[in-house]
Amino acid sequence: MAASSVSTSGSLLGFEDYSFYSNLSDEELIHLAVERSLTDTRASAVSNSPTGMPASQSVNQTPANPPCGTNDFLQCKSTDGATKNYSFVTGCGERSVAWRRYDGSSYVTPEPVEDVHSIVTAIRNGDVKAVNDLASSSAKSLMLANKDGWIPLHEAVYYEQVECVKVLLKAQPTSIDKRTLSEQTALLLAVARENLACVQWLLEKGADPEIASKNKDTPLYKACEKENVEIVALILKFGGGVNQRCIQGWTALHESVCRNNIEICKMLIEAGAAVNPPDMYGITPLFVAAQSGRLEALSFLIGNGADVNSQAADGATALFEASKNGHEDVVELLLSHNADANRPAKSGLLPLHIAAERGRDEIVSMLIPATGRARLRRSGVSPLHLAAEKNRDDALEVLIKAGFDVNAKLSHGRSVMYEDRRSTALYFAVANNNMAATAMLLEAGADPNLDTFSALLVAVRQGCLETVVLLVEHGADVNVNIPTYPTSFPSSVMLCGRYLPLLKYLMDSGCDAQACFRCQYGSNPHPPVDAPHGRGTEGLGSDNPAHSHTKEPLQFCKMLSSPSVSSWAGPVIDLLLDYVGNVQLCARLTEHLDSYEDWAVIKEKSKLPRPLMHLCRQTIRKQMGTHRLKQLDALPLPGQLIKYMNNDRTRDEYLY
Question: Any idea where the SOCS box domain is (predicted)?
Answer without folding.
Answer: 588-651
